Amino acid sequence: MAPVGSSQRNECVNSIVGSKAPKIRYYGGSESSDFRAAAGVAQFHEGYEYIIQATEEMGLAASCTTAKYVHSMDNKRKKDSHRKSSKTYKKARRQLRKNRTQKTSVLDSHEGVTYESGIGLIQTTEDSARVTRGCNV
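Above: the chain's sequence. Below: its structure in token form.
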């Protein structure tokens, strides 16, 4: 990876390949693993159009159902891309993130530190003062 580079494209390819060969199934012992990875890379570069191209190369007849599926998935991909690149979508995401961050910080301030290594062993001065006030020695 290049310094100051974005890994989003790599994560996108990994996600697509992962959808073709999920970890819950074992494909590593067969040739299908290579073909599944190739299908994921083809989908990343060509879109869903790779399905039609692959069937033509294998000499299979093109199905109208497959063509409809490819067309609908490519349209969905274009619409999602257009929607996610709009300013209103980005503003809404930024606002949601800000709200989540504010909510988390408010809850953390009310609750105090709860998850930290050795949290049960740490005693603050407030805790020790409370303990000594309660003693009648």
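Residues 1 and 10 are 10 Å apart (CA to CA).
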